[in-house]
Structures are given as structure tokens and as C-alpha cells.
């Protein structure tokens, strides 16, 4: 659970916020709708139907989901023998959709039609991107935000939108019923009427919300992200979160809220009272518009990405709103995202195009500042004056110039760690602390953490995962290689293939014309082959087997939890 003890290394607001996350089972609508809050990062909504339970967001992992279920049954013992008849994934993020087995769901029951799995029509495509395309860097950046440093006064306090993230065994089942954009899905499950609809939010285009008209209850998922200013951009890394679309999503949700007396969300305590609900959602929406519009206003006057962080500051009535404090999202990192989303990374100054490479730039800075010892002295002085950001900026040049310089690394670590301790925003705190641990070599990356968890990979469409192999091609090893390789997945009737040419691997779902080699076998063997780079048992290889091995050798293997975020790529943690 959240760390709630006061400490000089934890901002007071962080501690106060952590104390708002006790485990609780809220009875939102008497005998019918319950909200489990504080058991894991994401809250779980439980609807009691005539002959079963409807679960909205089972959670991050099976152990956490099981603990949530046990607490619910203890609070509502009459529901103990009711099976789950539907699971709704509000979106694809790791804290939401991967604990169904903890609620007793099995693939056998899904195949028998006893359990529906409901998600957005965009859910699988977006999940494949997270798992197969950028999964490695997302794994590391997410772990730095809360997976590595131990919980406590000098580490993780809470996750801002929940107490803490668990890394237990997970389960994942493919959706059976999809929600189309612009067309709400109306269902009756276990005697309960539901309307599931798209409303853009934290998860981009696969965010869905739920309305229960018979009880005038709406579940806003992460369209309203929680008791915090929204993460209009996540420092974990993401494609552009369209802030204008998010504002439109809140408007859609607001339409349902106007006909609701109770409200719940993925990362918050439930609300009651129509006037209160409408007021809260409208203020949240207006704060998003203010940040969006002012970011564009100043951009049009020539202000650059980083300058926007100084120009756009929440005024009243937003600044003192307890639901808009910057525990999770911040205006400063949101406006930079808006700038990039509309006009890209370049700020218009050709110096950005002419600038030498990072290492060469840092070497020149160190030279003109008087050399290594002079920079170390200035960094030490800045830390002593509690000017931690400037110290980190100075010392970054020393570290870039010579990543093996442990004096520079430890001093920069001291700057980032102390800066992190001061932060109210949990992301800023944790990246400061995790970055410091990377620099001084104390970070523990041994904990399991992987966006491409085998439990997810084995369920996703094989061809969708095959396609993502192309981004792992080592162009230098590919050289002048030219070959065609066909994959046939015998037990799922899928096929796909690659043509290697000109240092790329061009993917096609069509049958290749005259492939050099065909690799045929069951899904498990195909997945093992692309994960390990070696032909698995149970495969049939038609054509030149050495060509198949050569093809697989062109792709780098992913080693989760082995990427630097602060040190230059490939730098050992302990030289």
C-alpha cells in the first residue's frame, strides 16, 4: 500500500495525498454497484447482476485481483457464489486488464460463452504497439517511475493514481465484444443494462467508459484520470495524447454525467450527487482547455517548448481545486507535449540542426568551462546552494563526455536525488530517484517487469507480433542480405512473411512469391522462435534451413530491464 509516514525526504503534499488511499469497498448503489479502491493502482468496479458479477478493470495482476475479490466478498458475502459473467477492459494499460484469472475467469468459460470480455475496437492494436514495437523502452521507463526503487521515505511513496503497482503473475484474455468509436455498445448482462462508449482519455483511442442507466451511474475510467491534474502527457513515453480529443472525450462523459447521481473512475473514490459530479467534471474539462488553448496561444507568438512551461500556469479557479493538484500530471510537461503534438520537436532555431552530437557538445562545454575539475567544483557549489537542477545540467556534460567518471556520476546522482525529494509530482520524484540510482550504480533491475509479458504475447495475434520484428532488425548485420522468409502458423491459420532487402525487413500478410524458406508450426513454437532467434522444436522448415537461421540472426533479441535512461546507451552501471 502507499507509504504514509512523514519524512524530510518526502514532500508534505505527497504524504498527505498518500493518506487518502486506504483500502475500501464503497457501496455506490445499494446492493448493486461497488467500488474497490486502494487495493492496487486501478480501482475495480463490481456490478452485481441477477446471476453473476460484471467486473470493470480486473487489475494489474492475478494476486492483486484475488485480494480485491476477497475483500469484496468479505464486505458483500451474499455475492460469494456468483461467477463473473463479464469483464470490461477500460483500456490496455498494465494496471487495468491483466487480473481476470484472479476473479476466477477461465478461457474455458469464455469459449463456452459464459463470460464476455469487452474492450475497445482499438484495444488490441494499441496493445500490440506497446508490447511489440516500443515495449522495451516502455518497460524501462515505467519501471523507473515506480518499479525499481523500494517503497519508503527515499523511494516510492505512492503511484499518484493509486497506492502502488504490483508485479505478480498476470492473465490476459482476448476481447469477445468490441466497442466501436462513435457507436456505444448497449448490452444486457446478468439482467443489467449497460451502455459502453468511447470517451478519449489517458489511453488515447482505446479508452471506454460505462453507463448503467437503471441506476443513473457512470464510470468515467480515465477520461477523468483521478484526484489529480491529468497526465496529458506521460513521462513513461507515449504517442501524442491528443489534448483536444481528450477535451472532447470529457464532453461526451459529461453528457452521461448530467443524467447520473453517482460516479466512479479508475483511480479515485466514488462521487455522489448530480450537481457535484457535473461541477467536478466540467471544471476538469475547462482546466484541460485552458492548458491546451494557452499553450497554442503562446506557441503562435513564437515561444518555444520549454518556454511554455514558464508561461502557462494554472490560474484560479483551477489552481486551488483539490482535484487538480499536480500529483500525477503537470502543466509543465503537458504543454511541452502539446507543442510537439502540433508542430513537432524543432523550435525554429537552426542551431538545433547545426549542433554537434551530444558527446561532442558536452566535451566542448567542459573545455570552455575550464575542464573537469572546474565543472565538478561548480556542480558541488550548486548543490550546496540547493540549486539542484542547475547542478544536474552542469554535471550532465561531464557524464556525457566521460560516462566512466564516477565522481561526476555520483555528484549528478546527489543533485537528482535531492531534487526528486522535493517534488510533489510522483513522476518527477521517481525519475529523479531512479536516475540517481542509475548514475551511482545502486539501481536494482533484477525485479521482473516486462510490457511483453509471455502471458500477453501468447494470446495476441501471431501475425501482429511478427510484423513488429522489423523494428529489431540490425541493419549493419543485414548488410546486403536479400531473402524471403514465409511463416505459417498451423493451429491458428495465420500467415505472414518478410522480404529482407536494402537493410530493411518488409512485412507482408500475403503469401510470398517463391520464398527462400518457409517456417511452419504451431503458435507457441513460432513465438518461441521469434523471441529467442533460434528455431524451436515442432517446426517444419521447407527450403534452406541455414537461410532460416541466418534470417533470425539478423534481429536483435530484447533484454528487458537493460536500458539506460540517464547514462549514454551501453554504459555499464558499474564500470
Automatic annotation (TrEMBL):
One of its GO terms (biological process) is dodecyl sulfate metabolic process. Signal peptide: none annotated. Keywords: Hydrolase, Metal-binding, Zinc. Gene3D superfamilies: Alkyl sulfatase, dimerisation domain, Metallo-beta-lactamase domain, SCP2 sterol-binding domain. Residues 40-267 form the Metallo-beta-lactamase domain. The keyword DNA damage does not apply. SUPFAM superfamilies: Metallo-hydrolase/oxidoreductase (SSF56281), SCP-like (SSF55718). Pfam families: Alkyl_sulf_C (PF14864), Alkyl_sulf_dimr (PF14863), Lactamase_B (PF00753). Coiled coil: none annotated. GO terms for molecular function: linear primary-alkylsulfatase activity; metal ion binding; protein dimerization activity. SMART domains: Lactamase_B. The keyword Metal-binding applies. Belongs to the metallo-beta-lactamase superfamily. Type III sulfatase family. This is Alkyl sulfatase dimerization domain-containing protein. It comes from Microbulbifer pacificus.
